[in-house]
Design a protein that fits this description.
Layout lengths: L3 E6 L4 H11 L5 E7 L4 H11 L3 E4 L2 H10 L8 E4 H9 L6 E4 L7 H9 L3 E4 L2 H11 L6 E3 L2 H9 L6 H4 E8 L17 H4 L9 H9 L1 H13 L7 E5 L5 E7 L4 E5 L5 H9 L8 H7 L12 E2 L6 H12 L3 H17 L8 H10 L11 H22 L8 H4 L16
Parallel strand pairs: 1-2, 1-5, 2-3, 3-4, 5-6, 6-7, 8-9
Antiparallel strand pairs: 8-10, 9-12, 10-11
């Protein structure tokens, strides 16, 4: 059997580590030929010693120098690449068959596009690529297998029915609700970073965990599902499911509803992505770890997602329906807001209002189908504006977007080179 050659982007992150765990179970089917890391140099050095990839990408010169020191005694030294350019170069390498994208955020966009454009199969958990550049990804959907548990679930439910527009009534994307789905609204003003990072079900990185607490993560996932499955947002409904057993469901127009269920373990959708279109049996020990015993389920509960409690859902719907450059602004402002919150520089209840005000300053109708170059310009503008608003705010505790409205912020004025849109 010829082994598939795999690159794992973001190998020290939550998705990357679990992907390597799954890949290690199938040494006769896969060879991990490339690993990438942004900043976790100690963890990356350990992975390099164990995996011995041909290629490695470090986040910066400083990280590379640190890694050179940590790996000086390793027998097999990889071919090194650096930074964003290194990620793109790696994803264009001919002797890679599969790219697993475990990178969080906007940083996953350009390497994902490069991998798709060079004909690779892409297994991705990077929802932001679909949010900011769905129209650029759409021509390559046949090369993509989603790794997020929700989109993997929908993908599996639709395997028997790909004429989705004619036969699907509603896609239900489930959400645990995070740690605050039933917290009294007045108490959200006092939410700490530590409390927001305490997700009740999933073990994830800090950015995704905060996005789960605000439900922006679910808003992103609705936009991603719209792109992946060519479905209008009006037929995609997020619902709260605290047990995280039903990962998503599809209601068909004939009255049937198909749901994919399983333990909340990301290794299951990762393995399905690697084995697709078939399924591979786990060994008995691993089967026992992830097996779902229906007789032990005491209850499965579902609740509507409340836009008043989770205003980020409303913002994501607005951006997704408007399209064009507005989802770029949504994502960029969210990344800044979450980073500030994690740094104790922005209150939890200010995340959504900050994002909304940046969105309000952007003339979305002027940029219906931005090129990659324009997406990069819009992203940079939105980040600057989000930072400017947050700094001018001066540590107050807003709960409405109007609290930002008095702040003087220049509206988006376009880019110097306007070709391509």
């Amino acid at each position: 059997m010829v082994r598939k050659r795999v690159a794992v982007l973001g190998s020290t992150g939550s998705i990357g580590r679990q992907a390597l765990d799954v890949l290690s179970r199938w040494p006769d089917r896969f060879e991990v030929v490339a690993l990438t890391c942004h900043s976790n140099t100690d963890g990356f050095a350990r992975q390099l010693a164990q995996v011995k990839p041909r290629w490695a990408v470090a986040g910066s010169d400083d990280h590379y120098n640190r890694l050179q020191s940590l790996t000086a005694k390793h027998d097999n030294q990889p071919h090194w690449l650096l930074g964003e350019a290194g990620l793109e170069t790696l994803c264009g390498v001919a002797d890679i068959d599969i790219v697993i994208v475990g990178i969080v955020g906007y940083a996953g966009l350009k390497p994902t596009l490069k991998a798709l454009q060079t004909g690779k199969r892409v297994l991705t958990a990077n929802k932001e690529t679909f949010v900011v550049a769905g129209h650029l990804v759409a021509p390559y959907l046949s090369q993509i297998v989603p790794l997020d548990s929700e989109h993997s679930a929908i993908f599996q439910c639709l395997q028997s029915c790909w004429s989705a527009d004619n036969e699907v009534k509603t896609i239900y994307i489930t959400a645990s609700g995070g740690p605050f789905w039933n917290t009294p609204l007045e108490q959200l003003r006092e939410v700490t970073v530590e409390a927001a990072l305490n997700h009740p079900t999933w073990q994830m990185g800090p950015k995704v965990t905060i996005d789960s607490a605000t439900m922006m993560n679910k808003g992103f996932e609705c936009i991603e599902a719209s792109v992946l499955f060519n479905m209008p947002l009006s037929r995609i409904e997020p619902i709260i499911h605290p047990q995280s057993i039903v990962h998503s469901a599809v209601a068909f127009k004939d009255g049937a509803l198909l749901a994919q269920m399983g333990q909340p373990d990301m290794r299951v959708p990762i393995q399905y992505g690697l084995s697709y279109p078939t399924r591979w049996a786990l060994d008995e020990d691993n089967q026992e770890q992830v097996h779902l015993d229906l007789t032990r389920l005491s209850q499965l509960t579902f609740y509507p997602a409340d836009d008043n409690r989770f205003p980020c859902l409303r913002l994501a719907k607005w951006a997704g329906e408007e399209g064009g450059g507005l989802p770029v602004v949504l994502n960029a402002a969210d990344e800044v807001a979450v980073e500030l919150f994690l740094a104790h520089q922005l209150p939890f209840t200010a995340i959504a209002p900050l994002i909304e005000q940046v969105m309000c300053n952007f003339p979305a109708h002027d940029y219906p189908s931005p090129s990659l170059e324009t997406i990069m310009e819009i992203d940079a503008w939105a980040r600057r504006q989000a930072l400017s608003l947050a700094r001018q705010l001066g540590g107050t505790l807003p709960v409405q977007a109007t609290d930002f409205a008095h702040q003087p912020v220049a509206p988006y004025a376009g880019v110097a080179h306007s070709g391509g849109f």
